[in-house]
């Protein structure tokens, strides 16, 4: 099913600078989730689908003149036809690092564990965010972004070629060039999202909240949890252990500690990563605990049918929660020197493949990592980033029913 766009007329006021706004969050019918923005002024404006990515700071969109290009069913941004587009100079404060691209400020975004990268130049233009709460467009002037000219290695799973709707990245990681930093005066370093589960049959849409609209609501049995994070470069979480089926795994937790220089370890939350990834020294005991559960409960042996997923069973998918192990990630709330548990049910850990079986949606990577909390595991959690206070808040919620009330 194709994604249904929403087009809104702008308000009669010019260049509003709201302290709160919302934007739609769509499932891209693959392993990714996307937002929409509208770029430019004049006779031609551009409304691309951008991958929601909390692991990347630069927002970039594929532009006319790209080579190689991401093949898509959408047009590329023709920046020359936008009357408000301006190149970012090498002397601009936002040009950090100072990468020269044909005389102006450039950027290069590389992606972990793949050959994917986007290279191009930085520009400034008007951005309009579809506000799903008011029905209007919120307009911001002169936001800096990347114009992708050399884009290669991007394959969005089953939505490749002319059926692919994604032509860029909405970078929400910390950093000078991030929209979170550029809009800080308005949103005060706060945003939230609620990712719908891939396991649901119906096409889904949710909402992202920025600024004063951001809030999480829990209940007596579903309380909002708070954990600490480091926001210097990425959103690093203070992971302190893993339990499977009620048993704490023997893992040297130093593998989860951030190396602030090399950034080759630690535990980051990344909505642009389809799955959770664990460094081998953490993945191996986790992998063995999952195998042990199904071996002792059912006598099953793993029989992979997917070249990427390591733990798959060619057996009937157990429909009851008791048919799967409960997985718990233990994080630290440093201010109170205590652990906070993020509890994952079967739909956060296992994916059913019709006619084949089901697989564990957690992958290994070589030590020292980094480890990544991916989008599949974030589904049906309402997650709030509180950057000024270095806190991540979350509460379990069915994201298909996402409202902020």
TrEMBL record:
GO function term, MF aspect, one: aspartic-type endopeptidase activity
PROSITE patterns (alphabetical): PEPTIDASE_A1 (PS51767)
Keywords associated with the record: Aspartyl protease, Glycoprotein, Hydrolase, Protease
Domain of life: Eukaryota
A GO term from the CC aspect: extracellular region
One annotated GO biological process: proteolysis
Keyword Hydrolase: yes
Domain Peptidase A1, first and last residues per copy: 33-395
Family: Belongs to the peptidase A1 family.
Name by which UniProt lists this protein: Peptidase A1 domain-containing protein
